[in-house]
């Protein structure tokens, strides 16, 4: 339960409007705080600075911050549209989670609200000479924060929505999810393989709404299974799209408490879109989209596709890392493991299909798959070998020049 609450809080903090509300609340609180600190200001200092000194500064802040916020929002939406058109619609998910942009916009909006509330309260009897000096000091702090944010914003705009920055952000998210899954296969649960004979009967847990399975909280299911003294067999995987009433899991008991069943339903995060947290296939498919989009006739940029291929080879090797621990942490929960074939189906198979007529792309695919086969172990290496065979067949069929086909065959034999 604690992990679920922390995940929800992390997701909320990544939302733009949440950050703006938090900064705005702090900004509105700072003006009354200045009034409370007025008694700490020496009367002589108030006479030297003058209460009216803060009025033109607040007016300038209010006007400029409104313009800067509007301009920044225009730039942000333009970058979103450019990334959507250039690198694929699902790269928009990364830009929506751009915490640097969110923080900077929140500072701009907060500074605007600070200036507006300061100008309003300055016209009330609450603010005397000493309180106005305290507000003046607060205003200087806000100006310093604005300067830092503008410098960050200028530096951030250099890469906002670019291929390199988008690729790095997606790669980072995929690496985290792949490392987590490799260290804790099935997220700490037992592996539910197809050859297993599942117990008959039991109580079915069904989805209450349609959507994608974003996360499965195995720790929460373990606690509920211990409470009910039963086993839980999860019927879906993270990233699956489920319909309302579709089976999510089955408890190995026909006498499950209604409250336990309701709590178990909350262990499945079912929403309208996929996320990167527990879904490495989603991130890999986004990278596949970027490579395939680069190979489209409208863009025709094989070098970009090759860059993605090279990054993918390093990412997929993370899936073959040794797991931590000797057993399952959640022995009452059973989950389907992520098949290695799915990793290649979302990436190299698609790229080899769309780049079938490009010798440079085909050579890069064979080189990357050879690296995975050489450095990977077990099922991952064998899946890479099968993917290389499929890619070779597509390349030979798609290349028109005989010398290119021979070159590809030599490269595949050498690797």
Characterise this structure:
- This is DUF2254 domain-containing protein.
- Pfam families: DUF2254 (PF10011).
- It comes from Ruegeria aquimaris.
- The protein is of the alpha/beta class and 415 residues long.
- The chain has three domains: 154 residues, no CATH class; 134 residues; 88 residues, Pyrimidine nucleoside phosphorylase-like, C-terminal domain (Aldehyde Oxidoreductase, domain 3, Alpha-Beta Complex).
- 65% of the residues lie in helices and 8% in strands.
- The chain is built from 17 helices and eight strands.
- The longest helix has 34 residues.
- The model has no long low-confidence stretch (mean pLDDT 84).
Tally of individual domains: 3
Arrangement of strands in the largest sheet: 1-8-4-6-2
- The radius of gyration computed from the alpha-carbon positions, rounded to a whole number of angstroms, is 28 Å
Ends distance: 48 Å
The tally of beta strands, per DSSP, is 8
Mean pLDDT: 84
Query: Helix count, per DSSP?
Result: 17
**Which residue ranges are poorly predicted, with pLDDT under 50 across at least 5 consecutive positions?**
none
Sheet with the most strands? 5 strands, mixed
Determine the fraction of residues in helical runs and give it as a percent range. Answer: 55-70%
Element-by-element helix/strand order: HHHHHHHHEEEHEEEHEHHEHHHHH
Structural class comes to alpha/beta
Sum up the overall morphology in one term. flat
Strand content: 5-15%
């Amino acid at each position: 339960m604690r992990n679920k609450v922390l995940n929800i809080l992390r997701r909320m903090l990544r939302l733009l409007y949440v950050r703006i509300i938090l900064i705005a609340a702090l900004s509105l609180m700072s003006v009354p705080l200045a009034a409370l600190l007025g008694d700490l200001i020496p009367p002589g200092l108030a006479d030297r600075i003058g209460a009216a000194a803060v009025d033109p500064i607040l007016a300038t802040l209010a006007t400029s911050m409104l313009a800067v916020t509007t301009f920044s929002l225009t730039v942000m939406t333009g970058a979103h549209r450019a990334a959507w058109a250039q690198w694929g619609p699902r790269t928009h998910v990364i830009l929506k989670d751009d915490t640097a942009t969110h923080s900077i916009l929140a500072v701009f909006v907060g500074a605007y609200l600070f200036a507006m509330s300061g100008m309003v309260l300055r016209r009330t009897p609450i603010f005397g000479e000493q309180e106005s000096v305290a507000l003046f000091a607060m205003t200087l702090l806000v100006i310093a924060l604005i300067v830092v944010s503008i410098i960050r914003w200028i530096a951030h705009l250099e890469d906002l929505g670019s291929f390199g920055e988008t690729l790095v952000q997606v790669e980072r998210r995929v690496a985290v999810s792949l490392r987590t899954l490799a260290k804790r296969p099935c997220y700490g649960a037992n592996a539910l393989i197809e050859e297993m004979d599942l117990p008959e009967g039991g109580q079915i847990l069904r989805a209450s709404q349609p959507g994608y399975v974003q996360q499965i909280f195995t720790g929460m299911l373990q606690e509920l299974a211990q409470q009910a003294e039963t086993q839980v067999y999860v019927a879906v995987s993270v990233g699956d799209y489920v319909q309302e009433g579709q089976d999510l899991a089955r408890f190995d008991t026909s006498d499950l408490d209604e409250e336990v069943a309701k709590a178990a339903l909350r262990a499945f995060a079912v929403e309208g879109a996929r996320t990167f947290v527990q879904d490495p296939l989603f991130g890999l498919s986004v990278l596949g989209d970027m490579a395939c989009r680069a190979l489209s006739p409208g863009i025709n940029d094989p070098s970009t596709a090759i860059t993605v291929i090279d990054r993918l080879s390093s990412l997929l090797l993370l899936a073959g890392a040794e797991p931590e621990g000797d057993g399952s942490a959640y022995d009452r929960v059973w989950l389907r493991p992520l098949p290695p074939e799915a990793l290649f189906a979302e990436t190299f198979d698609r790229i080899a299909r769309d780049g079938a007529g490009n010798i440079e792309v085909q050579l890069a695919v064979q080189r990357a798959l050879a690296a995975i086969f050489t450095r990977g172990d077990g099922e991952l290496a064998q899946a890479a070998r099968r993917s290389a065979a499929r890619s070779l067949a597509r390349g030979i069929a798609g290349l028109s020049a005989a010398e290119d086909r021979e070159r590809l065959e030599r490269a595949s034999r050498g690797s």
